[in-house]
Design brief:
The protein is of the alpha/beta class. The chain folds into four domains: 246 residues, Zn peptidases (Aminopeptidase), CATH 3.40.630; 221 residues, 3-Layer(bba) Sandwich (Glucose Oxidase, domain 1); 38 residues, no CATH class; 184 residues, Transcription Elongation Factor S-II, Chain A (Up-down Bundle), CATH 1.20.930. The chain is 39% helix and 16% strand. Strands 1, 2, 4, 5, 6, 8, 9, 10, 11, 12, 13 and 14 form a twelve-stranded mixed beta sheet that branches. The chain has a two-stranded parallel sheet with strand order 3-7. Strands 15-16 form a two-stranded antiparallel sheet.
């Protein structure tokens, strides 16, 4: 082996000579000898995390409400910093100044046909000792709602997504001049007021229906895990699909001397006032509605007939906020690399919460802390990472990914030059491994998952995830794919957590990891997301917290120590081909939809609204697009497949006899190329209408918010019937894929030449 000595540990040369190429499976990016050493260190690492530590950290961090700007938020950041320093790590706090509105006045009241005033208050529960901290709790509200005071007829809009308004149009119901009430789920909350405003509504109320988020799912808190009748979901309604982070400093770090927009110039605030309410508060509002009975799929689980309205229900909605600048406290740890210090593996989780936040985010924060403690322990035993590892414990994630975005924007040039991968966690629970990310890391993540044991089933978390995917498959082809494909598929990432700036804006290959699906989720963003709930209804013994620390820590170590960055591109190429096929099917479906809509218009299916003054422009016949030229995208996907196979074959040739027969200079050159592969998928101009988002393969949807849209410029062009945009974006995405394929081919040729 001609790779560099000292890749991982003290005394490496003697260990390399002793290692056998036949007694351990070679890891991607490693020689057989260095794989042996890496696996030994990983085994030591996975023995270190202790469930009692997770419990102790969580009890401390979630003891009091710690939203942005609160005293305990700062106190938590300083305590986390003190722990890192206690363990011997190089740590510091970086601060940023951001806009964070908090409520001054909130009103939701039914004024006709009878009077009802919403409580907008979650009651303390006797058995739950932290639920009574009312003086410190943020009240029920939506951050970044516009201020407003409106009284108007109420209209029920189901989930409040675009297709629901198409159904309302068919029913002859307009929301122009109305206040809409929408239930949570099926889109991110910020989409609901956005779409409502686009259709002329003057206010928006979002409620938690027990069908998705209460007694329909199971026993309610404190007897069970699900949301009680007066529980409500706080949350941001910032228009994240435009840009996340501080609304006043888009694209630059929100340092004290940063140039800031005026509030009137901010594009990410809602256009209408919006408030969330509980299903206890929602029931009288919905019960007062008349008009059409809703379609079956629109019906929740409240004991009222679900009518659309408008009227006779009339509602008064008022929102007034304090528009203050608050300080963020990001805790940053740096573990210098011993071989490639200028290449970085970045790992993050946030520490702020809406209230006490035991599940979201503390269950993930404590995982990161225990990982860091375990790595600190290994450092004292002689382990050294090959690449620099940076841990970030972000502040301000809940209001709009503030801490991670501002830090990454402030360090953007360094990150573009040095950062190879970002690994994210957020909340964690009990159950199955859930993984999303860049598909160049799909094969890598499968390898990690096969080495982690599920704490309950005593099989690998990979095998357990595969069995679940087989059982849950709704199509025979999907079931067969899961059984036969060597790697389990990982999800594409949109937005909704701290990977967003790293993947979507800067082009870092990214992963997001957690365990879940076996615990109730009915306390999200409520006062009941606390230590009592978590230790009674979620990962009660913290065994899956330990599993997550083992999973993420193993991934971080493996990425940091690989002689060659362990990207693999055949899975990525396969996934891109699937996306291209989906786009062609989407076009066909859209053509059929337009044909059917035109037929309905001819047959008079669309009703006239009862109030002509509130009728928007009548529906008109649409032209059916006959063709989009997918050839550039198909050719680019084929080029990526060829390049991926070329690279795979070249890497196998360079790894004969279990050795990476490459010298130091060649490895440096190859790693520099591989670090740029995700960057090739970026556009300097960004996506149509939202230039902050630059990734041409992954982005949050403009009308999903969190959920990913893949090849988004093309996909959303088709969905929104912007045919010229779709045609142009096909070319842009194809060019990016061709550029990535060329870079991968160049790396393959260098592997073949060995220099």
């Amino acid at each position: 082996m001609r790779a560099r000595a000292g890749v991982i540990a003290v005394g490496l040369s003697s260990l390399l000579m002793a290692a056998s190429s036949t007694d351990v499976q070679t890891l991607p990016g490693y020689s057989a000898a260095s794989s042996r050493i890496e696996r030994d260190w990983e085994a030591k690492f996975r023995d270190i995390p202790t469930p009692q530590n997770f419990r102790d950290y969580m009890q401390r961090l979630s003891a009091r409400p710690h939203h942005v700007g609160s005293p305990y938020d700062k106190d938590n950041a300083e305590w986390i910093l003190s722990k890192f320093k206690e363990w011997g790590l190089d740590a510091k706090i970086e601060t940023f100044e951001v806009l964070f509105p908090t409520p001054k006045e909130r009103v939701v009241e039914l004024v006709e046909p009878k009077k009802f005033v919403a409580k907008l208050q979650e009651p303390a529960v006797q058995v739950d000792p932290t639920s009574n901290q009312q003086a410190e709790q943020l009240p029920i509200y939506n951050a970044y709602s516009a201020d407003g005071d409106v009284t108007a007829p109420l209209v029920y809009v189901n989930y409040g997504v675009p297709e629901d308004y198409e159904q309302l149009e068919r029913m002859g119901v307009s929301v122009k001049g109305a206040i809409v009430i929408a239930r949570y789920f099926h889109s991110w909350r910020g989409i609901k007021p956005k779409v409502a405003a686009e259709h002329g509504a003057v206010g928006c109320i979002i409620y938690s229906d027990p069908h998705e988020d209460g007694y329909f799912e199971g026993d309610v808190f404190p007897g069970g895990a699900w949301r009680p009748s007066e529980g409500a979901q706080r949350g941001s309604v910032m228009d994240l699909p435009i840009y996340p982070g501080d609304p006043l400093t888009p694209g630059v770090g929100a340092t004290k001397d940063a140039k800031r927009l005026q509030l009137k110039g901010v594009t990410t605030l809602t256009k209408i006032p919006v408030l969330p309410i509980s299903y206890g508060d929602a029931q009288p509002l919905l019960g007062a509605l008349k008009g059409n009975i809703v379609p079956e799929s629109w019906r929740g689980s409240l004991p009222v007939p679900y009518h659309v309205g408008p009227g006779p229900a009339k509602v008064h909605l008022k929102v007034q906020s304090n528009w203050d600048i608050k300080t963020l406290y990001d805790v940053i740890v740096k573990i210098p690399g011993s071989v490639n210090p200028d290449q970085w593996i970045v790992r993050g989780n946030h520490h702020d919460a809406w209230v006490n936040g035991a599940e979201d985010p503390v269950s993930g924060t404590v995982t990161l802390m225990e990982e860091a403690r375990a790595l600190a322990t290994l450092l004292k035993q002689g382990w050294k990472p090959g690449r620099t590892i940076i841990y970030g414990v972000w502040d301000g994630e809940e209001p709009g990914l503030l801490g991670s975005t501002e830090w990454a924007e402030a360090h953007a040039d360094e990150l573009r030059e040095h950062a190879a991968v970002y690994v994210n966690t957020d909340a964690n629970g009990r159950g199955y491994l859930q993984a999303g990310g860049s598909h160049s890391l799909e094969n890598f993540m499968n390898g990690v998952a096969k080495d982690i044991q599920d704490p309950e089933k005593q099989i690998s978390v990979w095998k357990r995830a595969q069995l679940k995917a087989i059982a849950n498959a709704t199509k025979p082809d999907d079931r067969q794919d899961t059984r036969q494909r060597a790697d389990l598929r990982i999800d594409a990432l949109g937005s909704g957590s701290d990977w967003t700036v790293f993947l979507d804006h800067l082009g870092l290959a990214s992963l997001n990891l957690s365990y879940g699906d076996e615990d109730g989720g009915g306390i999200y963003h409520s006062i009941y997301d606390d230590f009592y709930w978590y230790t009674h209804f979620s990962d009660t013994d913290f065994s899956y917290g330990r599993a997550l620390a083992q999973t993420v820590g193993t991934a971080v170590m493996r990425l940091a120590n690989a002689e060659l960055l362990p990207f693999e591109f055949t899975d990525q190429a396969d996934t891109v081909h699937r996306y291209v096929d989906e786009l062609q099917k989407l076009l066909k479906d859209k053509q059929e939809e337009i044909t059917e809509r035109n037929k309905e218009l001819e047959e008079g299916v669309f009703s006239a609204t009862a109030d002509p003054k509130k009728t928007s422009a009548p529906p008109v016949r649409e032209e059916i697009p006959s063709h989009l030229n997918f050839a550039p995208l198909q050719n680019a996907a084929d080029a990526l497949t060829r390049a991926a196979e070329h690279y795979k074959k070249a890497l196998e040739g360079a790894s004969k006899s279990g050795d990476l027969s490459l010298d130091s200079a060649t490895l440096d050159s190859l790693n520099a190329k591989l670090l740029q592969t995700e960057r090739k998928l970026m556009s300097a101009d960004g996506l149509p209408g939202r230039p902050w988002y630059r990734h041409l393969i992954y982005a949050p949807g403009q009308y999903t918010g969190y959920g990913a849209k893949t090849i988004p410029g093309v996909r959303e062009g088709i969905e929104q019937k912007k045919w010229k945009q779709a045609d142009e974006q096909i070319v842009h995405a194809a060019t990016a894929l061709q550029d990535e394929a060329a870079l991968i081919d160049s790396a393959a040729q260098q592997l073949e030449s060995g220099k």
